[in-house]
């Protein structure tokens, strides 16, 4: 990664002053242009030999790829020479060759942190780290399944959809009857958490909409998963979703009261939009998503005037390598929901944050940081994770102005 020079930042700041009010009329061309600039910047971190993004982790790279594919869906042929199908094909090949060991810890406060140990690509090693995009963590598998589903949307290359199905078969092994259903977080089978189960819902429902021959199978899995999720206790009285379940001595499982991370309010929204579509438009799923989406926007907006989404009470700006991407995942899925249910609260959240990010949160290389009010260099400074997360909001704005 190149460290921005002072002169570059100052020059860029002068441009910000001129451009900060451009978006008052939510001009489509501006969001298109800004997001293309952001896509160029994120590819500055792309490690072609490894197929993933430097400065961020394994599951995070799947999310950056998802952001890029969402952008490509809107950009169509106007990708400014960025070869998204080529990037997908390279990642599909090279990322699986990674020899990686992963360790994740969950702090008492409910903060996950992942440590990845990467070794050089060695295609000759028989048992490779993340062969077939599988590892010890069912949530990591879910992120890659969603990235490959979006990759299929962009390219219609069936290999990607087939791989998403094969990842999902492994994810199915994570489920059992403990807590009445649902999936474990990882293969140690100790913790059932929200994110893994939301990913399970979203992958199943997304496959139902794409794998014509298995529609009924995936639809039933997704419907059963949502029915279980609702009675699991993870959705609290404020319509926010806590981190996971605590298994009691008596065998019952209850909400563990850990943090209501923004991404836990996010993936479920996209999952329910896909589920509604798979049922031919059942609006009850959309209504459930809208209730969660509105509660989350309210809880994450710490200043009504600015409307900026923050996790200031949880971790911001020091959210570790994992937490720094949560808000973007939330906004990406809020945008999926907005397209199905264009509520003004959602539009406002997306546009206000997109405009603030663009006006206040870029360095001289157009790299975007964790605090959407800016400046870009707080916390660990821009990484592919913070940038990809902010780019999710810009892609969301492209979606809003196309509505
Ligand atoms: C997961 O399930 C599939 C299908 O039943 C099976 O082939 C595979 O070996 C299982 N994987 C693990 C790690 O248990
Ligand atoms: C909210 O943001 C506005 C505009 O920046 C600022 O004037 C106000 O003091 C902020 N309110 C709080 C409670 O921080």
UniProtKB/TrEMBL annotation:
Record carries keyword Hydrolase: yes
Gene Ontology biological-process entries: carbohydrate metabolic process
Entry superkingdom: Eukaryota
Protein name: Glycoside hydrolase
Hydrolase recorded as keyword: yes
Organism from which the protein derives: Podospora australis
A Gene Ontology molecular function term of the record: hydrolase activity
InterPro entries per UniProt: 6-hairpin_glycosidase_sf, Glyco_hydro_76, MUG_Protein
Annotated keywords: Hydrolase
Pfam family for this entry, one: Glyco_hydro_76
């Amino acid at each position: 990664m190149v460290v921005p020079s002072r002169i570059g930042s100052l020059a860029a700041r002068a441009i910000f002053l001129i451009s900060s009010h451009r978006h008052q009329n939510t001009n489509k061309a501006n969001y298109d242009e800004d997001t293309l600039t952001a896509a160029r910047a994120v590819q500055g971190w792309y490690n072609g030999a490894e197929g993933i993004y430097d400065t961020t982790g394994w599951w995070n790279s799947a999310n950056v790829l998802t952001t890029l594919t969402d952008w490509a869906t809107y950009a169509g042929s106007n990708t400014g020479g960025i070869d998204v199908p080529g990037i997908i094909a390279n990642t599909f090949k090279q990322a699986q060759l990674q020899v990686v060991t992963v360790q994740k810890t969950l702090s008492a406060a409910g903060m996950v942190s992942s440590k990845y140990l990467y070794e050089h690509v060695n295609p000759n090693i028989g048992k490779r780290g993340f062969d077939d995009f599988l590892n010890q963590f069912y949530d990591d598998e879910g992120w890659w399944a969603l990235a490959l589903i979006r990759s299929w949307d962009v390219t219609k290359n069936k290999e990607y959809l087939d791989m998403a199905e094969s990842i999902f078969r492994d994810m199915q092994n994570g489920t059992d009857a403990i807590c009445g259903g649902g999936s474990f977080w990882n293969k140690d089978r100790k913790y059932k958490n929200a994110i893994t189960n939301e990913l399970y819902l979203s992958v199943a429902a997304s496959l139902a909409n794409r794998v014509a021959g298995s529609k009924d199978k995936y639809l039933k899995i997704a419907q059963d998963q949502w029915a279980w999720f609702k009675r699991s206790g993870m959705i609290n009285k404020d319509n926010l979703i806590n981190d996971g379940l605590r298994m009691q001595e008596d065998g019952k499982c209850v909400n563990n009261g850990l943090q209501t991370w923004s991404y836990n309010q996010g993936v479920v929204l996209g999952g329910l939009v896909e589920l509604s579509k798979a049922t031919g438009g059942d609006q009850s799923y959309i209504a459930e998503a809208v209730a969660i989406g509105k509660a989350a926007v309210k809880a994450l907006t710490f200043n009504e005037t600015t409307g900026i989404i923050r996790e200031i009470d949880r971790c911001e700006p020091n959210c570790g390598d994992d937490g720094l991407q949560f808000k973007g995942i939330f906004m990406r899925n809020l945008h999926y929901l907005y397209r199905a249910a264009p509520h003004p609260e959602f539009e406002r959240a997306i546009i206000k944050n997109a405009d603030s990010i663009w006006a206040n949160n870029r360095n001289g290389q157009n790299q975007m940081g964790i605090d959407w009010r800016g400046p870009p260099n707080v916390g660990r400074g821009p990484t592919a994770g913070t940038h990809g997360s902010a780019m999710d909001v810009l892609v969301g704005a492209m979606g809003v102005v196309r509505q």
